[in-house]
Design goal:
Blueprint lengths: L1 H7 L13 H33 L1 H12 L1 H28 L6 H26 L1
Amino acid sequence: MEAKLHNKRPKHLNLIKIRQPLPAVVSILHRISGVLLFFPGIPLLLCGLQMLLQSPESFGILQGYLHHPMIKLMALLPLWFFVHHLCAGIRHLFLDLHIGVALPQARASSKLVFVAGFVLTVMVGLMLW
């Protein structure tokens, strides 16, 4: 009997083909966005802060970088990381307080995190342009 069960087990898991529920996707993206905010996010932020405070010339160089359309476009991705991480973090705080733990509520709050993250990113992105 044990030999039959052993033969039916998968030899490897294809993580691309496994379909995760929406709350799991939000949780995974929350962790990934946190890691990406930490590195390279913090070093880039500190580099920009150093250029901001170093001298008037380096401040002008930083302004030139930040006014470039390609840099503005590339800034939307870290902005989404931050907004998604913030919204998902608030969701996780509510879950820790046992608010919205039931499956329908968890799915609804996951959808809300995606919508809020997208809308807030678009709003702040429009303010950048």
